[in-house]
Amino acid sequence: MSEWVQLGDKAHCRFGDKGDTGLFVVVPYEAGDFEALAATLTPERVGQHLGGLPAEWVTCRPCPGLGAIVIAVRSSLGGGVTASLALDAHGKTLSGYLLGMRVLLERQKISLHQR
Length: 115
Known about the structure:
- By secondary structure, the chain is of the alpha+beta class.
- The chain has helices spanning about 5-10, 35-40, 45-50, 95-100; strands at about 1-5, 10-20, 20-30, 60-65, 70-75, 100-105.
- The chain has one domain.
- Helices cover about 20% and strands about 35% of the residues.
- The protein has 4 helices and 6 strands; from the N terminus they run βαββααββαβ.
């Protein structure tokens, strides 16, 4: 069974920048949600959620050893924090915006033997 949930209900996120590249690190609250979130956070879906950015600008890299998904978005900060005229040049509110993304997750059935 699948359900639509807000990403922020299943994970937290930190944002950083390097030049004109925004870097999101998405960490599921529950380790069991890692694979499902890694499968649903695709360059196409993330780019669409972030205002229709081309999927070629977005890289989603699952890091199972860290239990995190690293998302790099190139050319996303208006030239970088020192060149951008954006009110939020560092993009700190972008992590909150990403957490508003709706994701489809598979709900696992728990059998009586797994309790």
